[in-house]
Amino acid sequence: MKIAVVGPGALGTLFAAYLTEGGLDVLLVDHRPERARRLDDAGIRVQGLRGERHVPVRVTAESGAAGPVDLLILCVKAFQTEGALRAHAALASGSTVAWTVQNGLGNTDAMARVLPASQVVGGSTTMGANLLEPGVVHHAGEGDTWVGELEGGSSERVERIASALSAAGIAVQVAAEIRKVIWTKLLVNVGINALTAILRVRNGRLVEIEPARRLMEAAVREAVALAAGQGLDFDADAVQARVEQVAKLTAQNRSSMLADMLAGRPTEIDYINGAIARLGEAPVNRSLCELVQAAGASAGFREG
């Protein structure tokens, strides 16, 4: 199976390294030619849970020369999805399957604006990774990974993807209801990411600061109520308990949104709390979205 991983961030780098170690034909696709050449020469260093090693991953920014692949894995930020696919359209032929493990809602819709919807499959992962510097990734949490047909059920192609990932040591499952899996991760991000970015705190602080915990619960319960309108039923109490559990288990982690905010990068807020607010009445999620947006826009005007 010929695979292209688009996005040299933490997760994309980790996937590319493990899939290469698994004996697959893997190409990591960057959008910066100079960095791509440097990584192609130096390879990837993986640290963390599975020990430290060097993996000679092929890296390029010239996707046009690579030709079509069998599997295209999207690991860019949600707001970069459509642009990344258009920039690297040469990687896809009529038989290419495109798979996303990104955060938030709307990624598969963005992919379907570039590729036929029939070529897009859904996914999610709770694997944890931090990019220490370009080409150096710390594997912080094993987690689980899912792949599934957007219309539900299984298929030969998702089974084939799962087999390839499993052979590379990635704990993967075929999900009969991939939309619910995507929403399950979304609900955790709804409760944690925006609040950590606004308050500039690590995940565990949200359950220690009572007003923050109440806001987290309110945001999650709004999202659960709106999920029902999408045909997805969740137990609000169970979801809230799970969100608090994740915050405690990852107490020392900086959420990806906090990391983006501190680095002055755009966040995925429009695809998380903002996506919930667009589905219906969700004043807490709307306020969290607008606070993150305002914090980003006001960065150059702060006093003190």
Explained architecture:
With 304 residues, the chain is an alpha/beta fold. It folds into two domains: 175 residues, Rossmann fold (3-Layer(aba) Sandwich), CATH 3.40.50.720; 122 residues, N-(1-d-carboxylethyl)-l-norvaline Dehydrogenase, domain 2 (Orthogonal Bundle). Helix content is 44%, strand content 18%. It has an eight-stranded mixed β-sheet, with helices on both faces. It has a four-stranded mixed β-sheet with strand order 4-3-10-9. The model has no long low-confidence stretch (mean pLDDT 95).
Uncertain segments are: none
Question: Number of helical runs?
Answer: 12
Order of helices and strands: EHEHEEEEHEHEEEEHEHHHHHHH
| Helical/strand content category | alpha/beta
What's the alpha carbon Rg, rounded to whole Å?
A: 19 Å
**Helicity, in percent?**
40-55%
Average pLDDT for all residues: 95
CATH fold-level assignment of the largest domain: Rossmann fold
**How would you name the CATH homologous superfamily of the largest domain?**
NAD(P)-binding Rossmann-like Domain
* Count of domain modules: 2
Note the main sheet. 8 strands, mixed
Shape: globular
